[in-house]
């Protein structure tokens, strides 16, 4: 069966990780990438950087699918902006799941979300659009992750916990069951979140 062509918007380290997952998933063939002006003409794992995001409009007529492949640590703004641009141009943003991940058939994932190798999304979980569930992350039963959020490598979102929109949950962080993390929060590496966090909180040391 032929694979559908797909464009990646982003040409850095996260794009390489995305490309690896897309190859393993097998439904899409990466037809090219779009990055910074200095990256145009380079190759990423054998795929050429065709232009910047300003050049995307010229490709939508022949390629239906695209995915945001820019990473997210300090802010979700670049990913949000590119997601909105792709949708505005008429691209379809698929959900991509590594075959080495487990996503329950009773969980839901939004458009443009990628589930990396070794991640687990359990029954009843709801993950929004344009999210990154990074390698070996865990989103437990009935948990929620809002749009444009990144659950980083090895992070654990326990049962019925609620992560707001535009959040970053750092590597190895643990969010206690039932806890609510408000929109626009940053939870640092290895932080333990034991109680609700107000929107915009920055948790970078100790136990919350």
User: Average pLDDT value?
Assistant: 95
Proportion of strand residues: 25-35%
Assembly state: single chain
- Low-confidence stretches at least 5 residues in length (pLDDT < 50)? none
Could you give the count of β-strands? 23
In the CATH hierarchy, what is the superfamily of the largest domain? Hexapeptide repeat proteins
**Radius of gyration, rounded?**
17 Å
The domain tally reads: 2
Classify the fold: give the CATH topology of the largest domain: UDP N-Acetylglucosamine Acyltransferase, domain 1
General shape: globular
What is the architecture of the largest domain at the second tier of CATH? 3 Solenoid
Task: Give the N-to-C terminal Cα separation.
Answer: 50 Å
Indicate the percent of residues in helices.
Answer: 10-25%
Widest sheet: strand ordering: 6-9-12-15-18-21-23
Count of alpha and pi helical runs: 2
* Secondary-structure content class: alpha/beta
The main pleated sheet reads as: 7 strands, parallel
SSE succession: EHEEEEHEEEEEEEEEEEEEEEEEE
């Amino acid at each position: 069966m032929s694979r559908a062509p797909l464009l990646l918007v982003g040409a850095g380290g996260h794009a390489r990780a995305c490309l690896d997952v897309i190859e393993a998933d097998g439904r899409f063939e990466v037809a090219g990438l779009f990055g910074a002006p200095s990256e145009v003409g380079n190759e990423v794992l054998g795929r050429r950087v065709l232009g910047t995001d300003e050049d995307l409009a010229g490709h939508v007529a022949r390629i239906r699918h695209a995915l945001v492949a820019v990473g997210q640590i300090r802010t979700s703004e670049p990913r949000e902006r590119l997601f909105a641009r792709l949708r505005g141009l008429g691209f379809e943003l698929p959900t991509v799941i590594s075959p080495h991940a487990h996503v329950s058939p009773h969980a839901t994932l939004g458009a443009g979300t990628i589930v990396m190798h070794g991640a687990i999304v359990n029954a009843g979980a709801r993950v929004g659009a344009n999210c990154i569930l990074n390698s070996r992350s865990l989103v437990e039963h009935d948990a929620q992750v809002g749009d444009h959020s990144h659950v980083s490598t090895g992070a654990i979102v326990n049962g019925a916990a609620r992560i707001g929109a535009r959040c970053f949950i750092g590597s190895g962080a643990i969010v206690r069951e039932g806890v609510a993390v408000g929109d626009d929060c940053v939870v640092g590496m290895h932080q333990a979140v034991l109680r609700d966090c107000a929107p915009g909180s920055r948790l970078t040391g100790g136990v919350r």
